[in-house]
Amino acid sequence: MAGYNLEAIEAAPFKDDLDIVIPTIRSLDFLEQWRPFLKPYHLIIVQDGDPSIKIRIPDGYDYELYNRNDINRILGPRASCISFKDGGCRCFGFMVSKKKYIYTIDDDCFVAKDPSGKEINVIAQHIKNLETPSTPYYFNTLYDPFRDGTDFVRGYPFSLREGVPTAISHGLWLNIPDYDAPTQLVKPRERNTSLCRYVDAVMTIPKGVLYPMCGMNLAFNRELIGPAMYFSLMGEGQPISRYDDMWAGWATKVVCDHLGFGVKTGLPYLWHSKASNPFVNLKKEHSGIHWQEEMIPFFKYLRFSKESDTAAKCYMELSKMTKETLGKVDPYFVKLADAMVAWIEAWEELNPSVVDDKKKCNEKDVKAK
């Protein structure tokens, strides 16, 4: 292992540095099973759908609960950038958090066990991933060299072994795979079991490579990439759904590539318990299935300007490119681009200290010159 004390990382609770964001339309009984792992942390619960419905939260948890009325009150006219009746509403929790790290999980996910039968501590593994560097510029054939028991292989350039800061840790799922509707229909009984398909690996996604990010088991460094982690406008009133996390994944990956941050995928696993209806999903996804053939090349070949030196600046530039290029594909992308601008404006309004600190740093740089 390349010089990092992972035992110290695992022992540290990081409870003052991490918020857990959960989008939901139902009572959160699933948290009972998570109690040994999640109870020490602060929860931000974003209630989607009818705000008059009271949801039950197990005793003993420290939490904030926001519904649509709260979102409208806090964001005012910019509230329209937050999806309604869609899991993308979770990004409101990213915005109001003040912690360094975010972990977000879906309410149909439970504690998984590794092949030895040991329960998996998802927070500990995500923190390990985020607190150790990524290696996006050269692939290590033993995967993450900063994991215990491994290192850089022969032939790995010493000039690249320091790595780069890790912005995103993308976890996976046992039991129900995260498939699109056509694949669900073809493989209705397929399950990912710990004995057959548990892969004990973490790897950095190389620079210039996109990936399909799933939001049900995801952690990220809010200070590095937060403003770009926008789960795009989906759900009620929109022609597309189930692509909110895909958009966020593509956007954050190109921003990370530009700013010199890394993205890891692999461990930890959780147990995904509920298979959604493939026929309903097909209605939600059909536009996205067509549009992704335009969206993916768009992200693959875009380049940011040198002036975009923060995640927020990158995202504002991305909004312009979205309107100019993808706006020709469908008017939805013009609306999305406007929502992206509203998102950044709202983020900066709710997080003024970050903006002010950046301005002070720029002013010092100018005076120094």
Summarize the structure.
This protein has 369 residues and is an alpha/beta fold.
What can you tell me about this protein's structure?
The termini are far apart. α9 (244-259) packs across α11 and α11 (311-325) packs antiparallel against α12. This protein has helices spanning 6-11, 31-38, 68-75, 91-96, 122-131, 181-186, 194-197, 222-225, 244-259, 278-301, 311-325, 332-350, 352-368; strands spanning 18-24, 42-47, 62-66, 101-105, 109-110, 166-175, 202-204, 217-221, 262-272. By secondary structure, it is α/β, with parallel strands linked by helices.
Question: What's the arrangement of secondary structure elements?
Answer:
Layout: H1 6-11, E1 18-24, H2 31-38, E2 42-47, E3 62-66, H3 68-75, H4 91-96, E4 101-105, E5 109-110, H5 122-131, E6 166-175, H6 181-186, H7 194-197, E7 202-204, E8 217-221, H8 222-225, H9 244-259, E9 262-272, H10 278-301, H11 311-325, H12 332-350, H13 352-368
Parallel strand pairs: 1-2, 1-4, 2-3, 6-9
Antiparallel strand pairs: 4-8, 5-9, 6-8, 7-9
Helix pairs in contact: 9-11, 11-12
State the main characteristics.
globular, single chain, 9-stranded mixed beta sheet, alpha/beta, disordered C terminus, 369 residues
Radius of gyration: 20 Å
Q: How far apart, in Å, are the first and last alpha carbons? A: 41 Å
Considering DSSP H and I runs of 4 or more, what fraction of the residues is helical?
25-40%
H/E element order: HEHEEHHEEHEHHEEHHEHHHH
Structural class: alpha/beta
Mean pLDDT: 92
* SS element count, helices: 13
InterPro entries: Nucleotide-diphossugar_trans, RGP, RGP_fam
Protein name: UDP-arabinopyranose mutase
Subcellular location: Cytoplasm, Cytosol; Golgi apparatus
GO cellular component, one term: cytosol
